Amino acid sequence: MEDSHIVALFTHRAEKAIEETEKKYGSYCHRIAHHVLEDDEDAKEIVNDTYLRLWNTIPPQNPQNFKAYVATVCQRLALDRYDAGKAQKRGGGQVDLVLDELAECIPDGAESHMSESLALRDALNAFLEKLPQRTRILFVQRYWYLTPLSEIAKTCGEQEGAVAMLMLRTRKKLKAFLKKEGFDL
Questions:
Q1: Helices 160-180 & 114-130, crossing angle to 10 degrees?
Q2: For a surface tag, which of 9, 103, 127, 175 has the fewest beta carbons within 10 Å of its beta carbon?
Q3: Global pTM?
Q4: DSSP-derived secondary structure for 71-82
Q5: What CATH code would you report for 3-88?
């Protein structure tokens, strides 16, 4: 079923919207949540929470890119669950690794100022557009979907070290790009 039809089902409060979303994006959401939480049961709960959040937000939201909207909702819920779990116990996972890797590339406090956050978003999109397609895909897998380096390497048929080096070089390019764009790193 087309995404626009699924959004229309949500808009008309038809329960079939959840069924169709589950058919089309259930495993996609599970993969996103599992990369963040590293636990199947928690990932399943996040997927169900994603459907509820979609039900509660469409309308008034009318996403133009439903897949991206679903991914964003799922990822935010998973990150919230991760933060809640981290507050209760210490431990390292992909989220900590990814945040550490990106720490020197992203300006401090950018998330607290809306205008700077929007400017950063636009700059990141411009940077990603300039990357070769393969590098862009791997970068997004690592830093948006929080995919472990070992899984990325397996998927693209590379050694994990080669993927790690590509990510390091790409982060260095990102840092240089953001400095050139006027961000204080």
A1: 130
A2: 103
A3: 0.62
A4: HHHHHHHHHHHH
A5: 1.10.1740.10
